[in-house]
Write a structure and sequence with these properties.
The complex is a heterodimer of chains A (110) and B (115).
Chain A lengths: L3 E4 L2 E5 L4 E7 L5 E7 L5 E6 L3 E5 L2 E6 L4 E6 L8 E8 L7 E3 L3 E6 L1
Parallel strand pairs in A: 2-11
Antiparallel strand pairs in A: 1-3, 3-8, 4-5, 4-9, 6-7, 7-8, 9-10, 9-11
Chain B lengths: L4 E3 L2 E4 L5 E6 L6 E8 L3 E9 L2 E4 L8 E7 L2 E6 L8 E8 L9 E2 L3 E5 L1
Parallel strand pairs in B: 2-11
Antiparallel strand pairs in B: 1-3, 3-8, 4-5, 4-9, 5-6, 7-8, 9-10, 9-11
The chains are: A mainly beta (110), B mainly beta (115).
Chain lengths: 110, 115
């Protein structure tokens, strides 16, 4: 069936370290987004990235649609980066029906 | 814009009671989504609307759940009767498809506890 797999499931970093989060998906997609859920539960959209590479400050994302994966890079991590990072993809062609992965839980320590 | 507004933020009710969750999307957005988040099942899409019309309700768990969008600025998700297994955080999100990129903005969520 349709799958969105994220790795690693958990990650602990010291402040200032860099990290790479991975999202593998089982079929072609026309909508892929990365979200951050902060410790208070708020879901924030980070990137809309069905293909290619984007950067926003210390965060960047790359999607290689032909190989069915996306990467989220966090550089010089800060404690405010803590939370859960979700990849969400649409397999239906509608660009609307997002299926969420199980997330990567990130904890950044001092 | 104030973002996507959900109410109530927290609701505690007893099994069998009716629950109504409310959502005000971002003005100008043409899509509205209801998601549910639980530890066991993660984030699940329940239903979504386009221009106030329900497009896909295949994620609605059963007939006890219903959703309406009477106008572009308001939607409700109703559970009647509620059961303990309905306890979850319910998120509303909205988006604008105009540029071809359906980027979701989420509300703060409504945490439901059914005793």
């Amino acid at each position: 069936g349709i799958q969105v797999e994220q790795s690693p499931p958990d990650l602990i970093l010291q402040e200032g370290a860099n990290s790479t989060l991975r999202c593998n998906f089982s079929d072609s997609v026309n909508n892929l987004q990365w979200f951050h859920q902060n410790p208070w539960g708020q879901l924030i959209n980070l990137f809309y990235i069905p293909s290619g590479t984007k950067q926003n400050g210390r965060l960047s994302a790359t999607t290689v649609a032909t190989e069915r994966y996306s990467l989220l890079y966090i550089s010089s991590s800060q404690t405010t980066d803590s939370g859960v990072y979700f990849c969400a993809v649409d397999f239906t062609g509608t660009a609307s029906k997002l299926t969420f992965g199980t997330g990567t839980r990130l904890q950044v320590t001092l | 814009d104030a973002g996507v507004i959900q109410s109530p933020r927290h609701e505690v009710t007893e099994m069998g009671q009716e629950v109504t969750l409310r959502c005000k999307p971002i003005s100008g957005h043409d899509y509205l989504f209801w998601y549910r988040q639980t530890m066991m099942r993660g984030l699940e899409l329940l239903i979504y609307f386009n221009n106030n019309v329900p497009i896909d309700d295949s994620g609605m768990p059963e007939d006890r759940f219903s959703a309406k969008m009477p106008n572009a600025s308001f939607s409700t998700l109703k559970i009647q009767p509620s059961e303990p297994r309905d306890s979850a955080v319910y998120f509303c999100a909205s988006s604008f498809m105009g540029t071809g990129a359906n980027v979701l903005t989420f509300g703060a969520g409504s945490r439901l506890t059914v005793l």
